[in-house]
Design a protein that fits this description.
The chain is of the alpha+beta class. The protein folds into two domains: 11-146, Hotdog Thioesterase (Thiol Ester Dehydrase, Chain A, Roll), CATH 3.10.129; 153-292, Aminopeptidase (3-Layer(aba) Sandwich). The protein has seven helices and twelve strands. The strands form two sheets. A seven-stranded mixed β-sheet has the order 6-7-8-9-10-12-11, with helices on both faces. Strands 1-3-4-5-2 form a five-stranded antiparallel β-sheet. The chain is globular, with a radius of gyration of 22 Å. Mean pLDDT is 93; it is low at 2-6.
Length: 293
Amino acid sequence: MTEISTLKPPLESFRFSHRLRVRWTEVDLQKIVFNGHFLMYFDTAMADYWRTLALPYEEAMQLLGGELYVKKSTVEHHAPARFDDLLDVAVQCQRIGNSSIAFRGAIYRGDDLIVTCELIYVFADPITQCSCPVPDVLRQVLEGFEEGQPVLTLKTGNWDDLGWDAMEIRIEVFVDEQLIALELENDEEDDGAFHAVAYNGIGQVIATGRLLRGQQGQGRIGRMAVKRVLRGSGQGAAVLAALQIEATRRGDIELALHAQTSAKGFYERLGFKARGDVFDEVGLSHIEMFLAL
């Protein structure tokens, strides 16, 4: 990783950026964004950065046995931002020491650089708050992402190989979160299904789905589940893509699924179309959706 730079970086030099719009409550009497809000913008972007790395922040830190504490934050202002401006907040991990992690950040309005910053975190024991070495696995995740490596590991196969991990996330989503009875969640079709399970860089199970054989060349997708805090960051789409590849390989002519109506937009963005009326399934509103292969 490169050293922290004081040069004005172009947006294209960052692999990650978060887009937001300036709200009325963030503008001061000078009719520009109050300076203190820029650190809030960077903090908001950092939360999305962890999601992009497929790391559910709270759970990940518990698994790693530590917590990140801000040691230093510096902000340099280059131009004002105003109400209703659309801003891109970019962050990049630039240096990892023994116990510290340094990020650079920049905020742009189009091509105009508004603010740059430096954020330095220390990895520490959450009880004693004494610094600890950055875990090697976290170091590898951060360095790998900034070098352009994928953040997910996808495994596909049968229930004997992947069932334990698939059920972990399915119970978390369907039973614990959506209050579906466990006996309705676990069925006999798992044994004959093709399964896909996604893992993040520290080994957590974060998403799953299965593919069944329907009638007349139809593949049926089901049990799609993604960790709640990671939804909308691409993990579900990656699982769905793996299932679609398998359906195409075995010669299916159509994919179909029963989507919760709250997820209808997700499937539509991936090319699926709705078919028929909304119906009740396990106490939740669903609609059938399909994709021609």
